[in-house]
Write a structure and sequence with these properties.
The protein has 265 residues and is of the alpha+beta class. The protein has seven helices and 13 strands. The protein has a seven-stranded antiparallel beta sheet. A six-stranded antiparallel beta sheet has the order 8-13-12-11-10-9. A hairpin with a 2-residue loop joins strand 3 and strand 4. The longest helix is centred in the C-terminal third of the chain and has 24 residues. 28% of the residues are buried.
């Protein structure tokens, strides 16, 4: 017998960002914009339009748009049950809303709300706790994108490797290997130079200057009870970015794997 999930969950926050309403809308409500600071995104710009966020090889989230009010409001739903491998009637859709509000003087405020209904299981509470922790750092990417690369399409670079152990221990090793200091420090990473913009729990964000400008995220996250994933993800913005990725992405993958394997020995 089908039943209706009745335990409410909600995540709500606001972020101040530079840019005009139109620039911010382009960043948070188009495939080109969201792919530049969030995840690789496919999005049909209309009510009922399909939506897909790519989270890696054969991993992603599908949904559709339920409100489309440019340049102020976007609401979409994702199939939370399918995302988590649950029965269709066990969880409601995951509903997210972006509202763009012009700020007096300069810039805008983006109001973000995500909500859903479940059964009250322990894993659901953990999902929402992790969602806030994992989602909020992306909005630092959004601020930097709007400040330095507004309207530009990104060329992505990604590398990741799975290792035994926990995410915190893997991050400690990765942070030492990168030579990460404090926020605001200059850094050299595999021939790329930039500024450390954020260091958080198991993750860091670097704004790159050369040889190609962009945003570089380095992070680890748990994969079950006894393994963790280490990942590098960059959004690059220049005419030379595609050539750089074609040449250097395999080298990033090798560097990540060999560095962590060496440290583990």
């Amino acid at each position: 017998m089908s039943t209706t999930p009745d335990v409410p969950y909600r995540l709500e926050f606001s972020v101040e960002v530079p840019g005009t309403v139109e620039q911010v809308w382009d960043a948070v409500a188009t495939a080109k914009g969201m792919s530049a600071w969030f995840l690789s995104t496919e999005l049909e710009e209309c009510v009922g339009g399909a939506l897909h966020f790519s989270m890696g090889p054969e991993m992603g989230s599908d949904g559709h748009i339920i409100a489309w009010e440019p340049p102020r409001r976007l609401v979409y739903q994702e199939d939370w049950a399918a995302m988590m491998g649950r029965e269709p009637d066990e969880l409601s859709p995951l509903t997210s809303e972006f509202r763009v509000e012009e700020r007096a003087g300069d810039g805008c405020v983006v109001h973000v709300t995500s909500s859903g209904f479940g059964r009250g299981a322990d894993w659901e509470s953990e999902f929402w706790d992790d969602m806030g922790t994992n989602w909020l750092p992306f909005f630092d990417n959004l601020r930097l994108y709007l400040a330095h690369f507004p309207g530009q399409a990104a060329t992505p670079l990604e590398a990741s490797t799975l290792h035994p152990g926990d995410a915190a221990a893997l991050w400690s090793t990765l942070r030492d290997s990168l030579g990460l200091g404090a926020e605001g420090d200059m850094i050299e990473v595999r021939g790329m130079s930039g500024t450390v913009e954020r260091i958080g729990e198991n993750q860091a964000l670097i704004r790159l200057f050369a040889p190609v400008p962009g945003l570089l995220s380095v992070y680890t996250h748990a994969m079950g009870e006894d393994a963790a994933m280490a990942s590098v993800r960059a959004s690059l913005f220049s005419a030379d970015a595609a050539e750089y990725v074609q040449r250097e992405q395999p080298a990033w993958q090798s560097w990540l794997q060999e560095t962590l394997e060496f440290k583990a020995e």
